[in-house]
Write a structure and sequence with these properties.
- 2 copies of one chain form a homodimer.
- Chain A is of the alpha/beta class.
- Helix content of chain A is about 35%, strand content about 10%.
- The first copy, chain A, has 21 helices and 18 strands.
- In chain A, strands 7-10-11-12-13-14-15-16 form an 8-stranded parallel β-barrel. The first copy, chain A, has a 6-stranded mixed β-sheet with strand order 2-1-3-5-4-6. A two-stranded antiparallel sheet of chain A has the order 8-9.
- The longest helix of chain A is centred in the C-terminal third of the chain and has 33 residues.
- Chain A is globular.
- The interface between A and B is medium-sized, with 27 and 27 residues.
- Chains A, B: One of its GO terms (molecular function) is xylan alpha-1,2-glucuronosidase activity.
- Chains A, B: Its EC number is 3.2.1.131.
- Chains A, B: It comes from Xylanibacillus composti.
- Chains A, B: Pfam families: Glyco_hydro_67C (PF07477), Glyco_hydro_67M (PF07488), Glyco_hydro_67N (PF03648).
Chain lengths: ~675, ~675
């Protein structure tokens, strides 16, 4: 039997309360499903399993009603034949992935209908219904018409064939081991369930840094094994993508070049695409990291990103596949002495000039910020800057720079801020979420990708509470109008049950955690200050004299990066007005991004009224205290959470609190030594 | 045919000059050796090979003279029988490892005699004779009586069974591969030649950090393979030692404890020692790193170092084996906030109280400085502090903190300074070299160990000029009264030939290189400032907030560690007077160690007259310029050095010069940002 850690948010806790059991009883006896498809079968199985876990008895499953009351799971095109009296007028509103949840009373029947236009819609409807059942929502008179707002809702695995995971903090890969795709698919199927339950519909199974073994995933030899993975995900409505090596024609094909304009290279990719689709008819496409951090790409042949991406796009186009081309391109051999180069500018500078030159089955994958998933950065100015090019947005669920799943850092509030950012690309109201859903410029392909945070740890995510980030990502990109509070509450109820004290306490913890983490780590949007390579723990100068373009420029007078148009790198000018002016002007630049855009004296007064140096001290002290507060909150729940998860989380929170003190002291001492300015309140800063 | 890189200082360049050939001709025809032992056979073979390479013809080897002129290689106890007319009165002066080189004319014979009391002495005599021949020294009327000043002249390999080398910068291990001892001993034999040629007589074959596989080297199963290594070294007069795992009775013996006072543990070690000597009758003994950097040791059982070492000593004693116990013991989990703990004090604090409690077949191996092989540190105050305990001195040939064999750093001048340091342990004139040779306190065992710098790179040492450090170590510990200049010149002549421009130029480079490296790296004895873990390249704060006890405490006012008795950690008080006072007083503390002993303002005036900050800038600028000067010196030799070695060295020097600029700029910028003080000469310091 799976542990509570393992079940994550698919607990389906046994319902004990009499009135809730009674309400559930009506719907727990019978499921009717008149049609069979692989995904619809999955939907019915999940529903039956969920009800069994919730109620204790397994419902019957039949093709035709065998009782007066039942749940009907079906797809629109079969409706007439089976249940002509079900109203199908709303079906066009749900699209290819939406559903209707509706309680219908007709003649002698009381029917709880889960209807999709497609089987995938029905599957999502089933998971929605199970959520409602878990949360004790009244199902009588239910009437929900729901569809996902975004097209691509993708997960990127950074798993390597050798079983390691780049920036993985939850054990080894569940996909690969010792350069082989695993044979036992049990855990992968359980992962597919988790993903489908929150609406994920696409997955790239291997790291964007593609090594030798993964390069061969698109070879005739390896495709049968990859196809088995695709089968598992397909049964949960998820399409499989592969991260490819741009120089595959050389590595695999024995060609002497990978020049995207060479006929033999183009031919090689076309043959390869055909071969892939022979094995995986619904293959999603390629994810590509090219000419970035020493990965090969079109630059080697004097070609640009569009020429590279379009070649791949042409190969995939006949089969309906797409190319996802990452925009994380910058000079990673920068000289720290060179103040004119600004890594933050790089994605925009590289891609903006190519607007309009990409094929329409290419989509550019843009990280949420211009740097690299820091605890705080501005929204990437590339988002919205290209009005003739498909764009999707990349988040990082795995907590590389946000505590590595040893610290609690619930990221939904951060992502929510990104989605609500107004780019002004088409005037006021040009929110990032309307780039994500493709409506701002009417794009053919759009959506979201995020780097997964799971591994083979029993609890999937290292820190049990980090499961909330995976859940929340799926829910948020399904519907960006959900609030972080709503998403958090749902996750807690599904994961730990409906006891109000648990719900309120854990919600408080989750919703405070990003700010707490920010409070004791790099201040005011300046970023980094972490130990090189592994990125865990404080090292203020760790990247200061490096080639990575990630500096804070702290000296004895002040700190920050001047990215203004007037005296700095001009990065601020990549934004549309009035964002450009907001960031350019010291008076209007938001405090939390001040040091990202401006170099200021330690004595500069923030909009909060505090000086920069006092803010640094103040937030470090508060942050470390708040990390202790997280422990207090959690321990107040002792006895209300099963011991296994209680202890696991407690241990992580204790480590976090200790480590928060280390952050506090290192940062405070660093700036005290540099500024010579004491804390106004006389708290301990080590010399 | 071996490359010039590979042959290192055993080139035996073919002699071209007519008058030199003529002088050599006399001695190139015949070798007489009336006795056979394994080592004497080695000596004869080396002599015959050397003459063949030098002169072009192989000499005859016979038991009795077959010509009027010959070289005689022999040992004292056979002298009477063979050549009664050879004077043996000087033999008692050469001891167990010395020799007489003497030209004797008797009756019809002209004899160049190489005489040892032992065969090892004769072997060293042969290598000495070959050196003379290489350098074109007149052999007529030769009369040299020579013996090594030091007893143990040891090499420590930090090789791991998996083939990696801890702090190795010249490729993989020549001893181990994939957890096996290599089968082909060719390269190991060539290494033994190199070592014997400079007088090394002991080698510990595995890393002091002993992992699982190496732990089993003392097992019945592994000893036959280890014995084969011992055989190779024995034929060159070198005894084999093994680094052992203190918890071997548990790891190998299945005991539940490794408590050194438990009878079953003591019995296990005795049985193990007996087993080792069954396989290796002349086994040297154990090298032990215990209770240091997480290695197990006696502390776990509430026992002290003496109890741990003595247990092992008792096991080895019946067979004449010894225990070499390392004193590199300190708290590697220090809190950087804690200014009262001082890692520099640790070795003294741990071991001084145990003086007199070690058995007389235990020798303590003490690193030359109190920290860890920095480019500059004071001599360890433990040296001389124990007058009832055997001590030996540990150097590091492998350039962990001194440029990793990518930078040229000839270490003999540094070691020479150590040996000439007057500890005042028994009053004026108590030089470290008299601790090394055991005479200061009349110790039974004494000598030197050094961490090897070789691997399987074609040139052994990564940087071809780094061969000089291995050669120089052997020569210096053979005779500490040799000057660095003499040793360097000898190495150059043997390695590159006798052309005066080459000799002078390379000597200038070698002799300047340590100071050059110091000039652009950590200033004024403060140490570290390197990137964590791999220790290559500048990172001023890399270890500043770490647990390693290695800090510089730079703030906006000043820098340095207060180790004085009055206001600091009291480390200075571990020295004998007047060293204690010299270091305690700012006015007498040598500039080059100022920041090791004192925390001073940047504006503090050094004895040189410069301020600390200006000294930092000045030396960084000069150091980087001098790194360029090394290139100029080397390129002036183009055509005079074979192209293979010329290019290899040039490439390294170019990398060094580039990297020296990185050091210069990072350090200068760091201190400019912190101090706000500009360079007096207005040179470029990046903001």
């Amino acid at each position: 039997m799976a542990s509570t850690m393992y079940k994550a948010w698919l607990q389906n806790h046994h319902v004990e309360q009499p009135e809730l059991r009674e309400a559930l009883a009506r719907w727990s006896g019978s499921i009717v499903a008149s049609v069979h498809t692989e995904v619809l079968d999955t939907a019915v199985k999940e529903l039956a399993l969920g009800i069994k876990q919730l109620y204790g008895e397994k419902p019957t499953v039949s093709k035709v009603p065998q009782s007066e009351t039942f749940i009907y799971v079906g797809v629109a095109d079969q409706l007439d034949k089976s249940f002509g009296y079900l109203d199908k007028s709303e079906i066009p509103r749900v699209g290819q992935e939406g559903y209707i949840l509706k309680h219908v009373v007709r003649e002698q029947h009381s029917i709880l209908a889960v209807l999709g236009e497609t089987d995938r819609g029905a599957l999502y409807g089933v998971f929605h219904l199970l959520r409602l059942m878990n949360m004790g929502v009244q199902l009588e008179h239910l009437h929900i018409v729901e569809r996902p707002r975004n097209q691509l809702r993708m997960i990127n695995q950074w798993d390597n064939a050798d079983g390691t995971i780049e920036r993985g903090y939850a054990g080894h890969s569940i996909f690969f081991n010792e350069n082989q795709i695993v044979e036992d698919m049990t855990r992968i199927k359980d992962y597919a369930r988790l993903l489908a339950s929150v609406g994920i519909n696409a997955i790239a199974i291997n790291n964007v840094n593609v090594n030798e073994v993964e390069t061969a995933f698109i070879s005739e030899e390896q495709l049968p094994a990859v196809a088995k993975l695709a089968d598992v995900f397909r049964s949960y409505g998820i399409r499989l993508y592969i991260s490819i090596h741009f120089a595959s024609p050389m590595e695999l094909g024995g060609l002497s070049s990978a020049d995207p304009l060479l006929p033999e290279v183009r031919e090689w990719w076309k043959m390869t695409a055909a071969c892939i689709y022979d094995h995986i008819p619904d293959f999603g496409g390629f994810l590509v990291k090219a000419d970035s951090e020493h990965r090969p790409g079109p630059f080697a042949y004097g070609r640009d990103h569009a020429e590279g991406a379009n070649m791949l796009a042409e190969a995939l186009e006949p089969f309906g596949g797409i190319v996802i081309w990452r925009c994380f391109v910058y000079n990673c051999m920068q000289d720290w002495r060179d103040r004119s180069t600004d890594r933050a500018r790089a994605a925009y500078d590289h891609f903006k000039p190519l607007d309009g030159s990409f094929h329409d089955n290419v989509v550019l994958q843009v990280k949420n910020g211009p740097m690299d998933f820091q605890v705080r950065e501005p929204v990437s100015p590339l988002l919205g800057a290209m009005n003739q090019t498909n764009q999707m947005i990349e988040f990082q669920i795995t907590q590389e720079y946000t505590g590595q799943q040893r610290h609690l850092c619930y990221l939904i509030p951060q992502w929510k801020e990104v989605l609500e950012f107004d780019t002004h690309a088409k005037g006021k109201g040009s929110y990032v979420k309307h780039i994500g859903d493709g409506t701002l410029f009417g794009m053919k392909i759009s959506g979201y990708a995020a780097v997964s945070n799971i591994g083979d740890d029993e609890n999937w995510t290292g820190h049990t509470l980090a499961q909330a980030n995976l859940h929340g990502y799926g829910r948020l990109v399904w519907n960006p109008d959900l609030t972080a509070e709503e998403i958090a509450e749902e996750w807690i109820r599904l994961t730990f049950g409906n006891e109000e004290q648990v719900v309120r306490t854990v919600a408080d913890m989750l919703l405070a955690s990003w700010h707490i983490y920010e409070q004791y780590t790099a201040p005011l949007g300046v970023g980094w200050m972490v130990a090189p390579n592994h990125h865990y723990g404080p090292d203020v100068d760790g990247y200061e004299y490096s080639r990575w373009g990630t500096y804070h420029f702290a000296d004895r007078e002040g700190i920050g990066v001047d990215r203004t148009d007037k005296s700095g790198t001009g990065y601020a000018g990549q934004y549309f007005s009035p964002n450009r002016e907001m960031y350019n002007q010291l008076s209007s630049c938001p405090d939390e991004l001040l040091l990202f855009f401006h170099h200021v004296p330690y004595t500069h007064k923030l909009q909060s009224g505090q000086t920069v140096i006092q803010h640094i001290y103040e937030t470090r002290f508060t942050g470390a205290e708040r990390a202790e507060w997280l422990i207090q909150q959690w321990t107040s729940l002792e006895g209300k959470i099963d011991p296994e998860r209680y202890e696991q989380v407690l241990e992580r929170l204790q480590e976090q609190a200790e480590h928060a003190k280390e952050w506090r002291d290192v940062i405070n001492t660093y700036f005290y030594r540099k500024s010579g300015i004491a804390d106004e309140k006389g708290r301990t800063i080590y010399r």
